[in-house]
Amino acid sequence: MTAPAKTLCPYCGVGCGLEVLAQPQSAASDGTQPSLRWQTRGDRAHPSSQGMVCVKGATVAESLDCDRLRYPMLRQSLEAPFERVSWELALDTLAERIQTVINSQGPDGICVYGSGQFQTEDYYVAQKLVKGCLGTNNFDANSRLCMSSAVSGYLQSFGADGPPCCYDDLEITDCAFLIGTNTAECHPIVFNRLRKHHKRNPHVKLIVVDPRCTDTAKVADLHLAIRPGTDITLLNGIGHLLLRWGALDQRFIDRSTQGFQDYVEVLRHYEPALVAERCGIEEVALVAAACVWAEASAVLSLWSMGLNQSSEGTAKVCSLINVHLMTGQVGRPGAGPFSLTGQPNAMGGREAGGLAHILPGYRLVKHPQHRQQVEQFWRLPAGRISATRGLSVGEMMLALEQQQVGLLWIAATNPAVSLPDLNRTKAALRRSPFTVYQDAYYPTETAAFAHLLLPAAQWGEKTGTMTNSERTVTLCPAFRSPPGEARPDWEIFAEVGRRLGFAEQFAFASSAEVYQEFVQLTQGRPCDMSGLSHERLAVSPIQWPCPVQETPATAATKHDKRLYTDGIFAYPDGQARFMTYHEKGLAEPADAQYPFVLTTGRLYGHWHTQTRTGRIAKIQKMHPQPFLEIHPHDAQQLGLQTGDWVEVRSARGLVRLPLLITQNIRPGALFVPMHWGSLWAEDAECNALTHPESCPVSLQPELKACAVQVVAWPKPKVQEEDLQAEIGIITPAAGLPVESSRLSASPTF
Ligand code: SF4
């Protein structure tokens, strides 16, 4: 029996190690070779997860052969059917289109939208092509929807991106402060580690801040069910009490920070009674939370989309970091602000420069020296990298509306479900003169807006690296061949680059060579990975920083590397900054017409827009359909009962869902899961309701809150056959091998 392949789970940013085993199936009846069936299990040797996996990691292999895009497909218009074409024709068409747009509109007429599903090698080659060779910074990734507020918060507070903590802190801390994160469902293995520590050690406190009583909040010592959008008020209120009690680390403040007096001035405005009233919590609960902060020797804050997906996301992140700075709770075992990454390789994307404002090695587009360093390294003429920040994905949609985009290239992501204000987004996508969609699966909702489909190899079919939330880099080797003619994303980007005349820049023979080049660009940078290679990572996952001087032995065995342990931060003067903010509130608060605040989120089993998990029977059974959570008081006011259907309307669109009446949500707030696009249910796209207002710094949209109204809706009498017909909204193209994947239509409420 062959040894299992060791790799990383391709879902969330926890980054659990997996072992993949091949099981031969019986020979096919047509005499062809027996196929292999793949099974995953936790890798006990992986330092981040120690053998644990959640249902997603345990079932991921079941989607490998479902509904795969196998061949390049081309069509002349969105109304025409796709026709299979050769890679030669597909790539020539794409290269010619790019050249035409550059000649007629300039390089900024091209927009590329990538994904935290990319491996770092994919990200790196895409940056070299788009920002280096084409000369536009219009490369953004779905991390914009997920982590960009964490990036800008770290940058403002510490002078550089990069979570300072590691997972070992989960088992050392004596106060875990979870704000805006349903860790139990969205980052289950991080939560398992924390929960075990919490159970075994009665002195360890778990505080959860969330408008919903989630599975995470249910086991907390203290749950602060604040009004949506009042996080900054709460954090400044905690800071106010710590200041009043003198619970400060004055030595740390003096030696390692700037701006404390400004922060003190802000905190004066956050008297406990006022804070409690604004947040909708008891004053005694606020005081209890501040007491735990004051008394704990190590406070570890975890957060994810609840802070990041906000029109003041950067301000929220900085307000949280301020409390850590005033108490010296950073750079120490068990302490620090720790963002939990959504996508499996959003961290690798940040390292490789995979957002519109950054360059590889945690460099910034706006920094002339950074641009020069990268241009020289890529052997490109001076000035080739544009000094203008590229368009965020939201700005790309606006540019499409204004017909400023000549070519849109989307890869490994599904914006026709995941972007806010979806009706407007779809209208913008329809205006694209030429859209390339590079993905592993077909159909997806976004494929309906494409002119050219490029089949991509996915997890397990290409070799590359991914970095998880604690900065541990894992090599993910190919253990099977891609189906049909699918190719790794990095190879597709490189091939286009060569066709555009950049043979020297894309003369990579393997992804190991790509990685070798990339890590050199990180040398001397905060995310120094110059000591890493595929060869070394084949032995064991390694946490960065890992400079070239680090010996293989220490690099491979240490997995508790924290940043800023010496109290020296990444600003040139070595000091962190108190970045002070008052709360502005929700971009779209409830009003008389739209009296509820709707929040969106994930469920334990599903992943994002279901491109994989929608094709896995066990997960479909677990979460068969979308729903709307409402408090019993609100349901009674509306005369509704569990199982009734409602129409939820915002100023932009509507959804129709069955009700789940629950005490787990605040009165006045509603919750809908974000996983259902038009492929999986009718009128259930939560982003039909959401608005596109974004944080002015991070440009991350406020997907977590919008104002809505609720009205009764007749229960649909939809039969399974009808639903089968409805998912034909994206009709499989002739010649494409499409297997049927369907969810159960039976309500479970
Ligand atoms: Fe995969 Fe995240 Fe589950 Fe770990 S916790 S198995 S990385 S989905």
Description of the molecule:
The chain is of the alpha/beta class and 749 residues long. The protein has four domains: 5-63, ADC-like domains (N-terminal domain of TfIIb); 73-142 and 355-524, Rossmann fold (3-Layer(aba) Sandwich), CATH 3.40.50.740; 148-340, 3-Layer(aba) Sandwich (Dimethylsulfoxide Reductase, domain 2); 596-734, Beta Barrel (Barwin-like endoglucanases), CATH 2.40.40.20. It has a seven-stranded mixed sheet, with helices on one face. Iron/sulfur cluster (SF4) binds at residues 9, 11-12, 14-16, 49, 53-54, 56-57, 187-189. Iron/sulfur cluster is lined by residues 9, 11-12, 14-16, 49, 53-54, 56-57, 187-189.
Notable features of this structure?
N-terminal domain of TfIIb, Rossmann fold, Dimethylsulfoxide Reductase, domain 2, 4 domains, six-stranded mixed β-sheet, 26 helices, binds iron/sulfur cluster
Short précis:
This protein has 749 residues and is α/β, with parallel strands linked by helices.
Give me the count of strands. Answer: 28
* Uncertain stretches: 719-749
Radius of gyration: 25 Å
Helix content: 25-40%
Average per-residue pLDDT, rounded, comes to: 93
Class of secondary structure makeup: alpha/beta
Examine the coordinates and then state which fold CATH places here, giving the name of the CATH topology of the largest domain. Rossmann fold
Q: Output the number of helix runs.
A: 26
By CATH, the architecture of the largest domain is named 3-Layer(aba) Sandwich
Number of domains: 4
Question: What compounds sit in this structure?
Answer: iron/sulfur cluster
Main beta-sheet strand count, sense and barrel state: 7 strands, mixed
Beta-strand level of the residues, as a percent range?
A: 15-25%
